[in-house]
UniProtKB/TrEMBL annotation:
SUPFAM superfamilies: Metallo-dependent hydrolases. Pfam families: TatD_DNase. Keywords: Hydrolase, Metal-binding. It comes from the Bacteria. This is TatD family hydrolase. It comes from Luteococcus peritonei. InterPro entries: Metal_Hydrolase, TatD-like, TatD/YcfH-like. Residues 12-31 are annotated as: Disordered. The keyword Metal-binding applies. Coiled coil: none annotated. GO terms for molecular function: hydrolase activity.
Length: 287
């Protein structure tokens, strides 16, 4: 069965036109995508490579998914891992200290390039006491990333002011990535003041997300990343179906139009940026 036939069997979007140069999906959840849509990891990665997305960062959200991220990074040379307690999972944890200790242990594993996704989320977690737990977890992850010499991948949802307060108060690691960037141009500038990379998801293609296009325009090209956050946030024209790394070309083409940039040059820049943001190239020798 071909990749196209498998995608059709699963009622998933078809393969887009391949990109002129390879890029990296800076944030995805391969295992969650398998559970959500039935797309197995091998076919997922093959479909991505077929359209020019030949590397991915597999991101954990709790201890179990972080262990899976490490396993996938050690199994597939085109995958590296990020490990963490997602802020909402941190708020729900029955033993956060134990969970953080487990993440700290995983951070030393082969194939791990980042601590994340960590941060603050006031959208799904609304109780003030839980916000304090999220902040405790976030600060612990910041220290962990710094101590292990890893990148820090930050989740931020409806908590921008509190997030900036924490970033200003803490000693940050050398490399910080704003995952699924969701702010406006002013928030983008504030994050850039911390020398962060901004990772743009498929949401930037949505008609009601003009604020993201404005944020993209004020972001230096050397600080731009692209991601899926698959299986969520599927870009137009595939919105409404499950996301996967092979759909990155839709987002990148839209970003090139917003920036008035040459697509090939943007692909090459984003690839360089991603390797820099995550501590250097990985994968086959052609990296």
């Amino acid at each position: 069965m071909t990749i196209a036939e498998r995608l059709d069997e699963l009622h998933l979007p078809g393969l887009p036109e391949p990109l002129p140069s390879p890029v990296v999906d800076s944030h995805t959840h391969l295992d969650s995508t398998r559970e959500y849509s039935g797309l197995d990891v091998e076919t997922n990665l093959a479909a991505a490579a077929a359209v020019g997305v030949d590397r991915v960062v597999e991101v954990g959200c709790d201890v179990a998914s972080s262990r899976i991220a490490v396993e996938l990074a050690q199994r597939f040379e085109q995958v590296v891992a990020a490990v963490a307690m997602h802020p909402n999972d941190a708020a729900r944890s029955s033993d956060l200290d134990a969970d953080l200790a487990a993440i700290d242990e995983l951070a030393a594993a082969e194939g791990v390039r980042a601590i994340g996704e960590t941060g603050l989320d006031h959208y799904r977690t609304t109780e003030p006491d839980a916000h304090a737990v999220q902040e405790k977890s976030f600060v612990a992850h910041i220290e962990m990333a710094r101590r292990h010499g890893l990148s820090l991948v930050i989740h931020h949802r409806e908590a921008h002011d509190d997030l900036l307060r924490v970033l200003a108060a803490e000693q940050l690691p050398e490399r910080v990535v704003m995952h699924c960037f969701s702010g406006d141009a002013d928030f983008a500038r504030a994050c850039l003041d911390h020398d962060a990379w901004l990772s743009f998801p498929g949401v930037v293609t949505y008609k009601n997300a003009g604020y993201l296009s404005e944020a993209l325009k004020v972001t230096p090209l050397e600080k731009v990343l692209v991601e899926t956050d698959a299986p969520y946030l599927t870009p137009v024209p595939a919105r409404g179906k499950a996301n996967a790394p092979y759909l990155v070309p839709h987002t990148l083409r839209f970003m090139a139009e917003v920036l008035g940039a040459d697509l090939d040059e943007l692909c090459q820049q984003v690839r360089r940026n991603t390797f820099e943001a995550f501590g250097g190239a990985w994968g086959p020798a052609d990296a």
